[in-house]
Protein backbone atom coordinates (compact mmCIF):
# COMPACT_ATOMS: atom_id res chain seq x y z
CA UNK A 1 0.00 0.00 0.00
CA UNK A 2 1.37 3.45 -0.85
CA UNK A 3 1.86 5.97 1.91
CA UNK A 4 0.13 9.41 1.80
CA UNK A 5 2.43 12.17 0.55
CA UNK A 6 2.59 13.91 3.96
CA UNK A 7 1.20 11.76 6.73
CA UNK A 8 -0.16 8.40 7.73
CA UNK A 9 -1.25 9.78 11.12
CA UNK A 10 -1.57 13.16 12.80
CA UNK A 11 0.78 14.12 15.65
CA UNK A 12 -1.96 13.40 18.20
CA UNK A 13 -3.01 9.95 16.98
CA UNK A 14 -0.35 7.31 17.74
CA UNK A 15 -0.84 4.97 20.72
CA UNK A 16 0.66 1.77 22.12
CA UNK A 17 -1.59 -0.26 19.82
CA UNK A 18 0.35 1.19 16.85
CA UNK A 19 3.79 -0.02 18.06
CA UNK A 20 5.81 -1.66 15.28
CA UNK A 21 4.07 0.26 12.47
CA UNK A 22 5.94 2.18 9.79
CA UNK A 23 4.51 5.71 10.08
CA UNK A 24 4.79 9.11 8.40
CA UNK A 25 4.19 12.38 10.29
CA UNK A 26 4.37 16.03 9.23
CA UNK A 27 4.43 19.04 11.50
CA UNK A 28 6.42 21.76 13.21
CA UNK A 29 9.59 21.16 15.26
CA UNK A 30 8.16 22.34 18.58
CA UNK A 31 11.19 21.64 20.74
CA UNK A 32 14.55 20.05 19.92
CA UNK A 33 16.68 18.45 22.64
CA UNK A 34 20.17 17.07 22.15
CA UNK A 35 21.03 14.38 24.71
CA UNK A 36 24.66 13.66 23.82
CA UNK A 37 24.31 12.07 20.43
CA UNK A 38 20.60 11.35 20.84
CA UNK A 39 18.26 13.94 19.23
CA UNK A 40 14.71 14.28 20.51
CA UNK A 41 12.24 16.38 18.54
CA UNK A 42 8.70 17.16 19.72
CA UNK A 43 6.75 17.26 16.45
CA UNK A 44 3.58 19.36 16.66
CA UNK A 45 0.49 19.83 14.51
CA UNK A 46 -3.09 20.98 15.16
CA UNK A 47 -3.95 17.64 16.80
CA UNK A 48 -1.08 17.16 19.23
CA UNK A 49 2.60 16.37 19.81
CA UNK A 50 4.58 13.22 19.13
CA UNK A 51 8.19 12.65 20.22
CA UNK A 52 10.46 11.59 17.35
CA UNK A 53 14.04 10.41 17.86
CA UNK A 54 17.25 10.11 15.82
CA UNK A 55 20.59 8.61 16.88
CA UNK A 56 23.91 8.53 14.98
CA UNK A 57 22.93 5.13 13.46
CA UNK A 58 19.91 6.71 11.73
CA UNK A 59 20.45 7.59 8.05
CA UNK A 60 18.60 10.87 8.82
CA UNK A 61 20.85 11.91 11.71
CA UNK A 62 22.99 14.41 9.74
CA UNK A 63 19.90 16.24 8.47
CA UNK A 64 18.24 16.03 11.90
CA UNK A 65 21.14 17.96 13.42
CA UNK A 66 20.42 20.95 11.15
CA UNK A 67 16.74 21.32 12.16
CA UNK A 68 15.67 24.37 14.18
CA UNK A 69 12.55 25.42 16.09
CA UNK A 70 9.39 25.85 13.98
CA UNK A 71 10.80 24.23 10.84
CA UNK A 72 8.09 22.24 9.09
CA UNK A 73 9.22 18.68 8.32
CA UNK A 74 7.98 15.29 7.19
CA UNK A 75 9.46 12.30 9.00
CA UNK A 76 9.20 8.56 8.26
CA UNK A 77 10.06 5.95 10.84
CA UNK A 78 9.03 3.07 13.05
CA UNK A 79 6.85 3.48 16.14
CA UNK A 80 8.31 2.00 19.31
CA UNK A 81 7.63 1.95 23.06
CA UNK A 82 9.41 4.69 25.01
CA UNK A 83 12.13 3.27 27.32
CA UNK A 84 10.91 2.67 30.90
CA UNK A 85 10.99 5.86 32.95
CA UNK A 86 10.83 8.22 29.94
CA UNK A 87 7.05 8.06 29.37
CA UNK A 88 5.11 11.33 29.50
CA UNK A 89 1.75 10.90 31.23
CA UNK A 90 0.67 14.43 30.22
CA UNK A 91 0.65 13.59 26.51
CA UNK A 92 -1.88 11.22 24.89
CA UNK A 93 1.06 10.03 22.72
CA UNK A 94 3.39 9.91 25.75
CA UNK A 95 3.92 6.13 25.82
CA UNK A 96 5.44 5.94 22.34
CA UNK A 97 8.04 7.56 20.05
CA UNK A 98 9.03 7.35 16.40
CA UNK A 99 12.56 6.22 15.47
CA UNK A 100 13.37 8.33 12.38
CA UNK A 101 14.52 6.73 9.10
CA UNK A 102 13.98 9.69 6.80
CA UNK A 103 13.42 13.47 7.05
CA UNK A 104 12.19 15.93 4.42
CA UNK A 105 12.26 19.66 5.14
CA UNK A 106 8.94 21.08 3.89
CA UNK A 107 9.37 24.65 5.15
CA UNK A 108 12.44 26.07 6.86
CA UNK A 109 11.96 28.88 9.39
CA UNK A 110 14.21 31.91 9.76
CA UNK A 111 15.07 33.40 13.13
CA UNK A 112 11.89 33.71 15.21
CA UNK A 113 10.75 37.12 16.53
CA UNK A 114 9.13 35.22 19.43
CA UNK A 115 9.31 31.58 20.48
CA UNK A 116 6.27 29.31 20.29
CA UNK A 117 7.43 26.86 22.95
CA UNK A 118 6.92 27.99 26.55
CA UNK A 119 4.49 30.39 28.17
CA UNK A 120 6.53 33.54 28.67
CA UNK A 121 4.91 36.95 28.20
CA UNK A 122 5.74 38.90 25.06
CA UNK A 123 5.04 42.58 24.30
CA UNK A 124 1.60 42.94 22.77
CA UNK A 125 3.01 44.68 19.72
CA UNK A 126 5.19 41.65 18.90
CA UNK A 127 2.33 39.25 19.56
CA UNK A 128 -0.07 41.12 17.26
CA UNK A 129 2.46 41.75 14.49
CA UNK A 130 3.33 38.04 14.43
CA UNK A 131 -0.15 36.83 15.36
CA UNK A 132 0.25 33.67 13.23
CA UNK A 133 3.16 32.65 15.52
CA UNK A 134 1.25 33.65 18.64
CA UNK A 135 -1.63 31.44 17.46
CA UNK A 136 0.69 28.43 17.30
CA UNK A 137 0.95 28.63 21.11
CA UNK A 138 -1.18 26.14 22.94
CA UNK A 139 -3.27 28.51 25.07
CA UNK A 140 -4.33 30.75 22.21
CA UNK A 141 -4.87 27.81 19.87
CA UNK A 142 -7.22 26.21 22.38
CA UNK A 143 -9.03 29.52 23.07
CA UNK A 144 -9.82 29.84 19.36
CA UNK A 145 -11.03 26.23 19.18
CA UNK A 146 -13.15 26.87 22.28
CA UNK A 147 -14.66 29.91 20.57
CA UNK A 148 -15.70 27.79 17.59
CA UNK A 149 -17.26 25.17 19.85
CA UNK A 150 -19.20 27.83 21.80
CA UNK A 151 -20.56 29.37 18.58
CA UNK A 152 -21.64 25.90 17.35
CA UNK A 153 -23.38 25.31 20.66
CA UNK A 154 -25.15 28.69 20.60
CA UNK A 155 -26.29 28.09 17.03
CA UNK A 156 -27.63 24.60 17.79
CA UNK A 157 -29.42 25.78 20.92
CA UNK A 158 -31.04 28.69 19.04
CA UNK A 159 -32.27 26.39 16.27
CA UNK A 160 -33.60 23.92 18.85
CA UNK A 161 -35.46 26.88 20.38
CA UNK A 162 -37.30 27.54 17.11
CA UNK A 163 -35.14 30.39 15.79
CA UNK A 164 -34.16 30.77 12.13
CA UNK A 165 -30.78 32.08 10.97
CA UNK A 166 -30.74 34.99 8.50
CA UNK A 167 -27.97 37.26 7.22
CA UNK A 168 -28.41 41.02 7.22
CA UNK A 169 -26.43 43.50 5.07
CA UNK A 170 -22.91 44.58 5.93
CA UNK A 171 -23.04 47.59 3.60
CA UNK A 172 -25.86 49.75 4.87
CA UNK A 173 -26.84 53.34 5.65
CA UNK A 174 -25.21 55.50 8.31
CA UNK A 175 -27.37 55.65 11.44
CA UNK A 176 -27.29 58.11 14.33
CA UNK A 177 -26.85 55.48 17.04
CA UNK A 178 -24.53 55.37 20.04
CA UNK A 179 -21.06 55.13 18.53
CA UNK A 180 -19.47 56.43 15.33
CA UNK A 181 -19.98 54.60 12.07
CA UNK A 182 -17.26 53.22 9.82
CA UNK A 183 -17.97 54.78 6.44
CA UNK A 184 -17.37 53.19 3.03
CA UNK A 185 -17.30 55.51 -0.01
CA UNK A 186 -19.43 54.59 -3.03
CA UNK A 187 -17.64 54.72 -6.41
CA UNK A 188 -20.87 54.60 -8.44
CA UNK A 189 -22.52 57.36 -6.39
CA UNK A 190 -19.92 60.11 -6.00
CA UNK A 191 -20.05 61.85 -2.63
CA UNK A 192 -22.24 59.16 -1.04
CA UNK A 193 -21.21 56.64 1.60
CA UNK A 194 -22.31 53.30 2.94
CA UNK A 195 -21.79 52.50 6.62
CA UNK A 196 -20.83 49.22 8.27
CA UNK A 197 -23.58 48.25 10.75
CA UNK A 198 -23.05 49.07 14.42
CA UNK A 199 -25.61 46.30 14.96
CA UNK A 200 -28.32 44.81 12.72
CA UNK A 201 -30.92 46.63 14.85
CA UNK A 202 -33.17 48.10 12.18
CA UNK A 203 -32.88 45.06 9.91
CA UNK A 204 -33.86 42.62 12.64
CA UNK A 205 -36.93 44.72 13.45
CA UNK A 206 -37.81 44.80 9.74
CA UNK A 207 -37.48 40.99 9.63
CA UNK A 208 -40.16 40.85 12.36
CA UNK A 209 -42.35 43.34 10.45
CA UNK A 210 -41.84 41.08 7.41
CA UNK A 211 -43.39 38.23 9.40
CA UNK A 212 -40.51 35.78 10.03
CA UNK A 213 -41.32 35.49 13.78
CA UNK A 214 -37.97 34.30 15.24
CA UNK A 215 -34.63 35.48 13.88
CA UNK A 216 -31.05 34.99 15.01
CA UNK A 217 -27.61 35.59 13.57
CA UNK A 218 -23.99 35.39 14.70
CA UNK A 219 -23.62 39.00 13.64
CA UNK A 220 -20.50 41.11 13.13
CA UNK A 221 -20.87 44.68 14.44
CA UNK A 222 -18.63 47.61 13.64
CA UNK A 223 -18.10 50.63 15.88
CA UNK A 224 -15.50 53.32 15.50
CA UNK A 225 -14.95 53.84 19.21
CA UNK A 226 -12.06 53.82 21.62
CA UNK A 227 -10.93 50.44 22.89
CA UNK A 228 -11.38 49.00 26.37
CA UNK A 229 -10.36 45.60 27.71
CA UNK A 230 -13.93 44.32 27.45
CA UNK A 231 -14.65 45.96 24.11
CA UNK A 232 -12.75 45.23 20.92
CA UNK A 233 -11.92 48.29 18.86
CA UNK A 234 -13.37 48.10 15.38
CA UNK A 235 -15.43 44.95 15.28
CA UNK A 236 -17.02 42.33 17.48
CA UNK A 237 -19.62 39.57 17.19
CA UNK A 238 -22.95 39.18 18.90
CA UNK A 239 -25.65 36.52 19.08
CA UNK A 240 -28.30 38.79 17.64
CA UNK A 241 -31.93 37.74 18.06
CA UNK A 242 -35.45 39.11 17.73
CA UNK A 243 -38.86 37.53 18.27
CA UNK A 244 -42.48 38.55 17.56
CA UNK A 245 -45.63 38.58 19.72
CA UNK A 246 -43.61 38.40 22.92
CA UNK A 247 -43.53 39.92 26.38
CA UNK A 248 -40.31 40.56 28.28
CA UNK A 249 -40.77 37.21 30.07
CA UNK A 250 -40.99 35.33 26.74
CA UNK A 251 -37.61 36.77 25.73
CA UNK A 252 -36.14 35.67 29.09
CA UNK A 253 -37.63 32.18 28.69
CA UNK A 254 -36.07 31.83 25.23
CA UNK A 255 -32.64 33.28 26.01
CA UNK A 256 -31.97 31.98 29.51
CA UNK A 257 -31.67 28.26 28.63
CA UNK A 258 -29.30 29.11 25.75
CA UNK A 259 -26.95 31.21 27.90
CA UNK A 260 -27.19 28.93 30.94
CA UNK A 261 -26.65 25.85 28.74
CA UNK A 262 -23.50 27.24 27.16
CA UNK A 263 -22.04 28.26 30.54
CA UNK A 264 -22.80 24.78 31.92
CA UNK A 265 -21.37 23.05 28.86
CA UNK A 266 -18.09 25.00 28.78
CA UNK A 267 -17.76 26.23 32.38
CA UNK A 268 -15.49 23.40 33.58
CA UNK A 269 -17.88 22.43 36.35
CA UNK A 270 -18.29 25.90 37.86
CA UNK A 271 -21.74 26.52 39.34
CA UNK A 272 -24.10 28.36 36.98
CA UNK A 273 -27.16 30.32 38.13
CA UNK A 274 -30.24 28.18 37.43
CA UNK A 275 -32.98 30.82 37.47
CA UNK A 276 -31.56 34.24 36.64
CA UNK A 277 -32.85 36.73 39.23
CA UNK A 278 -34.52 39.93 37.98
CA UNK A 279 -32.91 42.96 39.62
CA UNK A 280 -34.49 46.36 39.00
CA UNK A 281 -31.99 48.99 37.84
CA UNK A 282 -32.63 51.23 40.87
CA UNK A 283 -32.03 48.30 43.26
CA UNK A 284 -28.80 47.30 41.46
CA UNK A 285 -27.51 50.87 41.79
CA UNK A 286 -28.38 51.15 45.49
CA UNK A 287 -27.14 47.68 46.53
CA UNK A 288 -24.13 47.28 44.22
CA UNK A 289 -23.37 50.78 42.92
CA UNK A 290 -23.50 49.57 39.30
CA UNK A 291 -25.91 48.18 36.72
CA UNK A 292 -23.35 45.42 36.03
CA UNK A 293 -23.16 43.82 39.49
CA UNK A 294 -20.79 40.96 40.23
CA UNK A 295 -23.07 38.78 42.35
CA UNK A 296 -20.18 36.51 43.37
CA UNK A 297 -19.38 39.34 45.76
CA UNK A 298 -21.80 38.96 48.72
CA UNK A 299 -21.54 42.60 49.85
CA UNK A 300 -24.75 44.61 49.63
CA UNK A 301 -24.73 48.31 50.42
CA UNK A 302 -27.47 49.94 52.48
CA UNK A 303 -28.73 53.42 53.20
CA UNK A 304 -27.83 54.26 56.82
CA UNK A 305 -28.71 57.99 56.75
CA UNK A 306 -30.98 57.76 59.81
CA UNK A 307 -28.10 56.73 62.09
CA UNK A 308 -26.12 59.84 61.12
CA UNK A 309 -28.91 62.44 60.95
CA UNK A 310 -28.29 65.02 63.72
CA UNK A 311 -25.41 62.91 65.05
CA UNK A 312 -22.10 64.02 66.55
CA UNK A 313 -20.36 63.28 63.26
CA UNK A 314 -20.81 66.79 61.88
CA UNK A 315 -19.54 66.18 58.33
CA UNK A 316 -22.30 63.61 57.62
CA UNK A 317 -24.94 65.36 59.74
CA UNK A 318 -24.40 68.59 57.80
CA UNK A 319 -24.51 66.86 54.41
CA UNK A 320 -27.83 65.23 55.35
CA UNK A 321 -29.28 68.53 56.62
CA UNK A 322 -28.22 70.41 53.48
CA UNK A 323 -30.47 68.62 50.96
CA UNK A 324 -33.26 66.01 51.35
CA UNK A 325 -31.78 64.14 48.33
CA UNK A 326 -28.47 63.57 50.17
CA UNK A 327 -27.77 60.24 51.85
CA UNK A 328 -25.16 58.15 53.67
CA UNK A 329 -24.55 54.65 52.29
CA UNK A 330 -22.77 51.86 54.13
CA UNK A 331 -20.46 49.28 52.53
CA UNK A 332 -20.22 46.36 54.99
CA UNK A 333 -16.84 44.58 55.15
CA UNK A 334 -17.25 41.21 56.88
CA UNK A 335 -13.88 40.01 58.37
CA UNK A 336 -12.29 43.44 57.65
CA UNK A 337 -12.35 44.55 61.30
CA UNK A 338 -8.85 45.88 61.85
CA UNK A 339 -7.32 49.32 61.59
CA UNK A 340 -4.67 48.28 59.04
CA UNK A 341 -7.37 47.26 56.54
CA UNK A 342 -9.49 50.35 57.27
CA UNK A 343 -6.47 52.63 56.69
CA UNK A 344 -5.58 50.77 53.48
CA UNK A 345 -9.11 51.32 52.12
CA UNK A 346 -8.97 54.97 53.18
CA UNK A 347 -5.73 55.61 51.28
CA UNK A 348 -7.10 53.67 48.26
CA UNK A 349 -10.09 56.07 48.27
CA UNK A 350 -7.73 59.06 48.30
CA UNK A 351 -5.91 57.56 45.32
CA UNK A 352 -9.31 57.49 43.57
CA UNK A 353 -9.59 61.25 44.07
CA UNK A 354 -11.93 61.05 47.08
CA UNK A 355 -11.36 62.93 50.38
CA UNK A 356 -11.31 59.51 52.11
CA UNK A 357 -13.58 56.74 53.29
CA UNK A 358 -15.16 56.97 56.74
CA UNK A 359 -15.13 53.66 58.66
CA UNK A 360 -16.11 51.88 61.85
CA UNK A 361 -14.71 48.52 62.90
CA UNK A 362 -15.69 46.21 65.72
CA UNK A 363 -13.17 44.41 67.94
CA UNK A 364 -13.15 42.30 71.09
CA UNK A 365 -14.00 43.93 74.40
CA UNK A 366 -14.89 47.33 72.94
CA UNK A 367 -18.29 48.85 73.68
CA UNK A 368 -19.75 50.10 70.39
CA UNK A 369 -17.14 50.17 67.66
CA UNK A 370 -13.63 51.49 67.05
CA UNK A 371 -12.38 54.40 64.96
CA UNK A 372 -13.09 58.16 64.92
CA UNK A 373 -16.62 57.83 63.48
CA UNK A 374 -17.72 55.49 66.28
CA UNK A 375 -16.39 57.94 68.90
CA UNK A 376 -18.31 60.82 67.27
CA UNK A 377 -21.72 59.16 66.97
CA UNK A 378 -21.59 57.16 70.20
CA UNK A 379 -22.18 53.49 71.06
CA UNK A 380 -25.97 53.47 70.56
CA UNK A 381 -25.87 54.61 66.96
CA UNK A 382 -22.84 52.44 66.25
CA UNK A 383 -24.74 49.43 67.55
CA UNK A 384 -27.75 50.35 65.41
CA UNK A 385 -25.51 50.43 62.31
CA UNK A 386 -24.10 46.98 63.17
CA UNK A 387 -27.60 45.59 63.72
CA UNK A 388 -28.97 46.97 60.46
CA UNK A 389 -26.05 45.47 58.49
CA UNK A 390 -25.74 42.24 60.46
CA UNK A 391 -22.12 42.98 61.46
CA UNK A 392 -20.25 41.59 64.45
CA UNK A 393 -16.86 41.64 66.18
CA UNK A 394 -14.14 41.21 63.56
CA UNK A 395 -16.09 43.10 60.86
CA UNK A 396 -15.85 46.64 59.52
CA UNK A 397 -18.01 49.06 57.60
CA UNK A 398 -17.23 51.95 55.24
CA UNK A 399 -19.35 55.00 54.50
CA UNK A 400 -19.93 57.39 51.60
CA UNK A 401 -22.06 60.52 51.82
CA UNK A 402 -23.55 63.11 49.48
CA UNK A 403 -25.84 62.92 46.46
CA UNK A 404 -26.16 59.24 45.55
CA UNK A 405 -26.00 59.96 41.81
CA UNK A 406 -22.62 61.66 42.35
CA UNK A 407 -21.04 59.02 44.61
CA UNK A 408 -22.72 55.84 43.36
CA UNK A 409 -19.94 54.94 40.89
CA UNK A 410 -17.26 55.34 43.55
CA UNK A 411 -19.37 53.37 46.08
CA UNK A 412 -19.61 50.53 43.53
CA UNK A 413 -15.81 50.50 43.08
CA UNK A 414 -15.34 50.50 46.86
CA UNK A 415 -17.69 47.51 47.19
CA UNK A 416 -15.65 45.64 44.56
CA UNK A 417 -12.36 46.63 46.23
CA UNK A 418 -13.51 45.42 49.66
CA UNK A 419 -14.71 42.12 48.14
CA UNK A 420 -11.38 41.56 46.38
CA UNK A 421 -9.17 42.59 49.32
CA UNK A 422 -11.02 40.35 51.79
CA UNK A 423 -11.27 37.43 49.33
CA UNK A 424 -15.06 37.41 49.56
CA UNK A 425 -15.61 36.89 45.82
CA UNK A 426 -16.52 33.27 44.98
CA UNK A 427 -14.29 32.33 42.05
CA UNK A 428 -15.98 29.01 41.25
CA UNK A 429 -19.27 30.37 39.92
CA UNK A 430 -20.93 32.04 36.99
CA UNK A 431 -23.52 34.32 38.58
CA UNK A 432 -26.00 35.55 35.99
CA UNK A 433 -28.87 37.98 36.39
CA UNK A 434 -31.25 40.19 34.44
CA UNK A 435 -31.17 43.92 35.18
CA UNK A 436 -34.69 45.24 34.43
CA UNK A 437 -36.76 48.45 34.67
CA UNK A 438 -34.20 50.84 33.23
CA UNK A 439 -35.34 54.46 33.28
CA UNK A 440 -36.83 55.50 29.93
CA UNK A 441 -35.72 59.14 30.26
CA UNK A 442 -33.14 61.06 32.26
CA UNK A 443 -32.41 64.70 33.05
CA UNK A 444 -29.64 66.21 30.94
CA UNK A 445 -27.97 68.66 33.32
CA UNK A 446 -25.96 70.44 30.59
CA UNK A 447 -28.85 71.20 28.24
CA UNK A 448 -31.41 71.42 31.07
CA UNK A 449 -33.75 69.06 29.26
CA UNK A 450 -35.18 65.54 29.31
CA UNK A 451 -33.24 63.01 27.23
CA UNK A 452 -33.45 59.31 26.35
CA UNK A 453 -31.43 57.48 28.96
CA UNK A 454 -30.59 54.50 26.77
CA UNK A 455 -32.33 53.21 23.69
CA UNK A 456 -34.93 55.42 22.01
CA UNK A 457 -36.57 52.35 20.42
CA UNK A 458 -37.63 50.67 23.67
CA UNK A 459 -41.29 50.45 24.60
CA UNK A 460 -42.20 52.49 27.67
CA UNK A 461 -43.47 50.28 30.52
CA UNK A 462 -46.60 52.38 30.83
CA UNK A 463 -50.20 52.09 29.57
CA UNK A 464 -50.17 53.35 25.96
CA UNK A 465 -53.20 55.70 26.29
CA UNK A 466 -51.71 57.33 29.38
CA UNK A 467 -48.34 57.66 27.68
CA UNK A 468 -49.88 59.37 24.66
CA UNK A 469 -51.80 61.74 26.95
CA UNK A 470 -48.72 62.75 28.97
CA UNK A 471 -47.99 66.42 29.42
CA UNK A 472 -44.33 66.97 28.39
CA UNK A 473 -44.07 69.44 31.31
CA UNK A 474 -44.92 66.72 33.86
CA UNK A 475 -41.23 66.11 34.49
CA UNK A 476 -41.58 64.05 37.67
CA UNK A 477 -43.86 61.54 35.98
CA UNK A 478 -41.67 61.35 32.89
CA UNK A 479 -38.43 60.87 34.84
CA UNK A 480 -39.96 58.12 36.96
CA UNK A 481 -41.03 56.18 33.86
CA UNK A 482 -39.38 52.83 33.10
CA UNK A 483 -38.65 51.24 29.74
CA UNK A 484 -39.17 47.55 28.92
CA UNK A 485 -35.47 47.17 28.64
CA UNK A 486 -33.10 44.63 30.16
CA UNK A 487 -29.44 43.58 30.37
CA UNK A 488 -27.86 40.19 31.01
CA UNK A 489 -24.93 40.44 33.42
CA UNK A 490 -22.47 37.67 34.32
CA UNK A 491 -19.83 38.05 37.06
CA UNK A 492 -19.83 41.83 36.67
CA UNK A 493 -19.58 41.77 32.86
CA UNK A 494 -22.51 43.05 30.83
CA UNK A 495 -23.22 40.48 28.12
CA UNK A 496 -25.91 42.46 26.35
CA UNK A 497 -28.77 44.90 26.37
CA UNK A 498 -32.17 44.17 24.91
CA UNK A 499 -35.68 45.51 24.89
CA UNK A 500 -39.25 45.06 23.86
CA UNK A 501 -39.31 47.46 20.92
CA UNK A 502 -41.58 50.40 20.43
CA UNK A 503 -43.72 49.10 17.53
CA UNK A 504 -46.36 51.86 17.58
CA UNK A 505 -45.49 54.90 15.43
CA UNK A 506 -47.60 57.27 17.55
CA UNK A 507 -45.85 56.08 20.73
CA UNK A 508 -42.47 56.58 19.06
CA UNK A 509 -43.41 60.11 17.95
CA UNK A 510 -44.51 60.91 21.49
CA UNK A 511 -41.32 59.46 23.03
CA UNK A 512 -39.15 61.56 20.70
CA UNK A 513 -41.29 64.64 21.36
CA UNK A 514 -40.79 64.23 25.13
CA UNK A 515 -37.01 64.16 24.52
CA UNK A 516 -37.37 67.36 22.48
CA UNK A 517 -37.07 65.91 18.96
CA UNK A 518 -39.66 67.09 16.47
CA UNK A 519 -41.36 64.78 13.99
CA UNK A 520 -39.13 66.10 11.19
CA UNK A 521 -36.01 64.87 13.07
CA UNK A 522 -37.58 61.46 13.56
CA UNK A 523 -38.55 61.29 9.86
CA UNK A 524 -35.11 62.39 8.71
CA UNK A 525 -33.22 59.90 10.87
CA UNK A 526 -35.59 56.93 11.07
CA UNK A 527 -38.08 57.58 8.28
CA UNK A 528 -37.86 54.06 6.83
CA UNK A 529 -38.39 52.48 10.21
CA UNK A 530 -41.30 54.74 11.08
CA UNK A 531 -42.99 54.00 7.75
CA UNK A 532 -42.52 50.24 8.21
CA UNK A 533 -44.04 50.39 11.69
CA UNK A 534 -47.10 52.13 10.27
CA UNK A 535 -47.82 49.28 7.82
CA UNK A 536 -48.72 46.52 10.26
CA UNK A 537 -46.01 45.79 12.84
CA UNK A 538 -46.24 43.00 15.42
CA UNK A 539 -45.15 43.59 19.02
CA UNK A 540 -41.54 42.38 19.07
CA UNK A 541 -38.38 42.36 21.13
CA UNK A 542 -34.95 40.86 21.38
CA UNK A 543 -31.43 41.03 22.71
CA UNK A 544 -27.86 40.51 21.48
CA UNK A 545 -25.39 38.82 23.87
CA UNK A 546 -21.75 39.56 23.00
CA UNK A 547 -20.00 36.42 21.80
CA UNK A 548 -16.47 37.68 22.41
CA UNK A 549 -17.39 38.45 26.04
CA UNK A 550 -19.02 35.05 26.59
CA UNK A 551 -15.90 33.31 25.23
CA UNK A 552 -13.66 35.58 27.33
CA UNK A 553 -15.49 34.56 30.53
CA UNK A 554 -15.47 30.84 29.65
CA UNK A 555 -11.79 30.89 28.62
CA UNK A 556 -11.01 32.70 31.92
CA UNK A 557 -9.23 35.51 30.07
CA UNK A 558 -9.09 39.16 31.15
CA UNK A 559 -8.78 40.54 27.64
CA UNK A 560 -10.84 40.07 24.49
CA UNK A 561 -7.69 39.91 22.37
CA UNK A 562 -7.03 36.45 23.83
CA UNK A 563 -10.19 35.02 22.24
CA UNK A 564 -10.15 36.67 18.80
CA UNK A 565 -8.13 35.25 15.89
CA UNK A 566 -6.72 38.48 14.45
CA UNK A 567 -7.47 41.35 16.83
CA UNK A 568 -6.52 44.99 16.51
CA UNK A 569 -4.44 46.83 19.09
CA UNK A 570 -5.80 49.52 21.43
CA UNK A 571 -5.46 52.10 18.67
CA UNK A 572 -7.63 50.07 16.28
CA UNK A 573 -4.66 49.08 14.11
CA UNK A 574 -4.15 45.64 12.62
CA UNK A 575 -0.37 45.33 12.98
CA UNK A 576 -0.18 42.11 10.95
CA UNK A 577 -1.93 43.47 7.85
CA UNK A 578 -0.90 47.10 8.45
CA UNK A 579 -4.46 48.38 8.51
CA UNK A 580 -5.63 51.07 8.28
CA UNK A 581 -3.30 52.02 5.43
CA UNK A 582 -2.91 54.78 2.88
CA UNK A 583 -4.39 54.16 -0.57
CA UNK A 584 -3.19 55.24 -4.01
CA UNK A 585 -4.10 58.52 -5.67
CA UNK A 586 -5.82 56.50 -8.41
CA UNK A 587 -8.12 54.79 -5.89
CA UNK A 588 -9.03 58.11 -4.31
CA UNK A 589 -9.73 59.65 -7.70
CA UNK A 590 -12.07 56.79 -8.64
CA UNK A 591 -13.97 57.48 -5.41
CA UNK A 592 -14.04 61.27 -5.96
CA UNK A 593 -12.29 61.80 -2.64
CA UNK A 594 -9.70 64.44 -1.85
CA UNK A 595 -7.86 64.24 1.48
CA UNK A 596 -7.62 67.20 3.78
CA UNK A 597 -5.21 66.02 6.47
CA UNK A 598 -4.59 67.82 9.77
CA UNK A 599 -1.55 70.12 9.72
CA UNK A 600 1.50 68.42 11.25
Question: How would you characterize the overall build of this protein?
Answer:
This protein is an alpha+beta fold. The strands form six sheets. It has an eight-stranded mixed beta sheet, sandwiched between helices. Strands 1-2-3-5-4 form a five-stranded mixed barrel. A four-stranded antiparallel beta sheet has the order 13-14-16-15, sandwiched between helices. A hairpin with a 2-residue loop joins β21 (485-490) and β22. α15 packs antiparallel against α16 (519-533). The longest helix is centred in the N-terminal third of the chain and has 23 residues, at 138-160. The N and C termini lie far apart (69 Å). 35% of the residues are buried. The mean pLDDT is 94.
What's the short version?
The protein has 18 helices and 23 strands. By secondary structure, the chain is of the alpha+beta class.
**Count of helix runs:** 18
Q: What is the mean pLDDT?
A: 94
**Major β-sheet profile:** 8 strands, mixed
The rough form would be described as globular
Strand order of the largest sheet: 6-9-10-23-22-21-18-12
**Low-pLDDT regions:** none
Separation of the first and last Cα atoms:
69 Å
How big a fraction of the residues is strand? 15-25%
The total count of strands amounts to 23
